[in-house]
Amino acid sequence: MNNTNTTEKTEPTTNPRLSRRGFLKAAVRTSLSVAVLGTGGLLYANEIEPRWVEVTQVVLTLPRLDRAFDGYRLVQLSDIHADDWMTASHLSACIELVNQQQPDMVVLTGDFVTHHAEGFVQTLTSTLPQIRSHDGSLAVLGNHDHWTNPTLIRQALQESGGDQCKQ
């Protein structure tokens, strides 16, 4: 029998248990991160994005399109979301930008209200008639419009001079 005395080296073990101090540090860091990200998200959603109005001119060449449409100006106004922030005054400023483009036709594409159509339809009926275009306007409802009161929104659009309103 060979009696060899071997000593095994073992790695020191770390205690996987989290100390109270470590837990509190992690909780504070997490809370601060959530607060900063949440505040940033709210700031963006309430202050930056609602004021973000973009006018982009796109020239399309469609070889098979009738020459009668050469130079035709089509303006799209989308995602109005009439609510406590998108007041008649704000919407009028947007419509002024539309009118400055001297459109042949205006296309209004959905989400005329955010919620509670009954409370904000007056914003639409008081401002949309300000749209000026040679060939009128067309409108299509968006998901928010269908979630609220599509019949009321459609009626407001027709009263406001929208030539056609599609579902």
The portion of residues forming beta strands comes to: 5-15%
Q: Unreliable segments (pLDDT under 50, ≥5 consecutive)?
A: none
Approximately how much helix is present in the residues? 40-55%
Radius of gyration: 30 Å
Q: At the first level of CATH, what is the class of the largest domain?
A: Alpha Beta
**Tally of DSSP helical segments:** 5
The assigned structural class equals alpha/beta
The major sheet is characterized as: 4 strands, parallel
Strand order of the largest sheet: 1-2-3-4
Determine the CATH superfamily of the largest domain. Answer: GpdQ, catalytic alpha/beta sandwich domain
Quaternary structure of the protein: single chain
Compressed to H and E, one letter per element, the order equals HEHEHEHHE
- Beginning-to-end CA distance, first to last residue: 93 Å
Mean pLDDT: 85
